[in-house]
Structure formats: structure tokens, C-alpha cells
Amino acid sequence: MGTKNEERAIKKVIEDFRGILKDHDVEFVITDSSTDKTSEIAKSMGARVLSQPPRGYGIALRNSLLNATGQIIITTDCDDTYPVEAAPKMIELINHNYDVVSASRLLGKKRVNSMPFFNEFGNRFFALVVSLLYGFKCTDATTGMRAYKRNVIQEIVWTENTGLSLELLFKPAALGYKIIELPIDYRERIGAVKLDPIRGGLEMLVSVLKYKLKPIEKV
Q1: What is the C-alpha to C-alpha distance for residues 130 and 139, in angstroms, rounded to an integer?
Q2: Burial bucket for residue 175 (CB in 10 Å: 0-12, 13-18, 19+)
Q3: Could you report the per-residue pLDDT of 64-96, keeping only the tens digit for each?
Q4: Residue-level pLDDT at 194
Q5: Which residues have CB under 8 Å from 93's CB, separation 6+?
Q6: How far apart are CA 187 and CA 171, in angstroms?
Q7: Strand 100-104 to strand 179-183: parallel, antiparallel, or no bridges (unpaired)?
Q8: Which of the 8 DSSP states describes residue 156?
Q9: How far does CA 218 lie from the centroid of its chain?
Q10: Does domain 2-210 have CATH number 3.90.550.10?
Q11: Residue 127: per-residue pLDDT
């Protein structure tokens, strides 16, 4: 997880994951740039907290990903929007030889009530763009909850900031890794929204288009 001022939700998210994954050895790696008590709360819950100045969502999440030591790595947001109940199924699918399991907020749904209409439109748009450009038919390219085999994270060069959620899907797809979507229910967030949807959407569009013109690098 990458965090910024999530003191209202971080304890619940960690507790919920610990509860649902009690039969697994779970490590929480959090890159934090908060001015509130997020870092202190996460540390008190046993998380490994990497501190950095505010540099953006993708840079924070990438730092957490590259410092994770598990053989299966799960990303999520720390605002309690993603259901921890999906994690065991995601792990099961990874153990059944999928490289990436992408939790889709939109699969099989006409409307997601907990998501603003403008955001939902943008998410469906990016799913269409990724499907057309990168050969993987997806319904939710911008989800923040995915599971990866460790080698996927370690073998690809990740460069994007705002567009990292897209990059974490379209690069594995373009390189032929085995990916599956898993439908999930999406909840109302705890705390304030931090991403500007207009500016963020434009940055994501640049991210998803430019890799049709430049090679995708592996480590």
C-alpha cells in the first residue's frame, strides 16, 4: 500500500486482512507520506513503514511493491474500499498458475453505486483502451487491488506515477503473463479523495498510449 493521511482507515484495513488471512504469513509493506498519524498507527500494527516525501501514488506504491518479500504480492488501497474477503480467492488463483489476478469493480455490473459516475465512466474507458491496445480483454484497468506472483513485479521495469495502476496491468498483458479478472464489490471510501480525476485521467491516458510507441523494458 501507498498511504497519505489515511489514519481513519489504516487500522481497520490491516486488521481485516490479518483476520481473513490468518492461515497465511502476511507482511504489510506501506510507503507513507502522511502528515497525520497513519505511519504511527501502521507501525503499531506491525507493518513495515517506508517513509518518503509526497511524490505521488505510483511512486509510493512502487516502493512498497519492490520492497515486498512474499512470493505472492497483493496491492490494495488503504481507504477500506476494496473487500479483503477477495484475498483468499486471489491467492488461490495465483496458486493455480495465474501470474496476475486483477480485482474488477465493474465486471458484471451495470452501475457501481459507491463510485461517482464520472469516475466509473473513466474506469470503463480505460478498460476499453487497454483491451484494444494490449490484447487482454478487461473490465477494470485502474483497480487498486491485484495479486501478483513475485517474479512479475521483479521482472518488469515500472516507470509510471499516476498511471501505475494501468501499467501494472497492461505491461504484464503485453508481455504474455497469464492474467484473470475477479469480480468484487466496491465500498464507499473512508476519508477524503486525493486524486484529481481530470488531471489524473489525462496522465493515465498518456501512460497507456506511450507504450505502444516505446519498448516495454524488463529488468
Answers
A1: 9
A2: middle
A3: 999 999 999 999 999 999 999 999 999 999 999
A4: 65
A5: 101, 147, 180, 182
A6: 27
A7: parallel
A8: B
A9: 20
A10: yes
A11: 97
Q: Identity (one letter) of the amino acid at 158? A: W
**Residue 100 to residue 162: CA distance in whole angstroms:** 20
- What digits encode the pLDDT tens for the residues 32-68? 999 999 999 999 999 999 999 999 989 999 999 999 9
> What's the N-to-C CA distance of the chain in angstroms?
22
DSSP string, 103-123: EESSTT-S--TTS-HHHHHHH
| Grid cell listed for 170 | 497492461
Between strands 100-104 and 48-51, the pairing is: unpaired
Structure confidence at residue 135 (pLDDT):
87
Q: Tell the residue number behind the cell numbers 479483503, with chain if given.
A: 84
Query: How does DSSP classify residue 85?
Result: G
Q: Are 15 and 42 in contact (CB under 8 A)?
A: no
Quote helix, strand, coil % in the chain, to nearest 5. Answer: 40, 15, 45
pLDDT at position 215, please?
A: 92
Strand bridging mode 146-149 / 29-32: unpaired
Q: What is the value of pTM for the model shown?
A: 0.94
Question: Is the Cβ–Cβ distance between 7 and 41 less than 8 Å?
Answer: yes
Residue 193 pLDDT more than 80? no
